[in-house]
Amino acid sequence: MSIAHQSRTNFTSDQSQTAYIWMEMADGARDSYLRFSAEYSAFNALIWCCSSKEKDREIVSEFKNIFIASRSFETNDCRRFLSQAKDALVYAQRNFDRVSKLHTRKNGRNATDLKVLNGHTLHQTNIAALTSIDVFNVFIELLYQFRCNLVHGSKSISYEPNRVMAGILSERMRELNEWLVRHLQLDV
Questions:
Q1: pTM to 2 decimal places
Q2: CB half-sphere exposure, 142, CA atoms < 13 A
């Protein structure tokens, strides 16, 4: 079943226009954090349309399941995206191995490492050996966690690797957003 067949029946042209407007805002953003925020907002609007859930965490999880069930990762344009997404994972693995030690939550407890695959952290994962499905899952988890950390203040915007990661993720999200627009058959 294609992703388009999983869409909410109440997805309106206003919502598709919202995604398009966020993508235009990303085009005009010079700052990598603003570009990331705009691309993520477009991504969120697009994945919302193929979910029956209401909470962000649940929408992301359902989107991953729908994407995998659609076998979309087998298309050539998706293979290119996944290859570049794997490069983003390598950058994150090389540059964020001490993030949980550098940042603490507001309640004073140390932040925990993101569990990206089968209960393992990104740093315990052999990225080179990941299947396409695993690359997709890990990338979406990284994307979601980076957004959460940025929005909720546990990512320092003055830390240069965070800025670079925001730029890399923005580029990959643009490719994913454009792919979603094509495969959701939205008029944006």
A1: 0.81
A2: 31
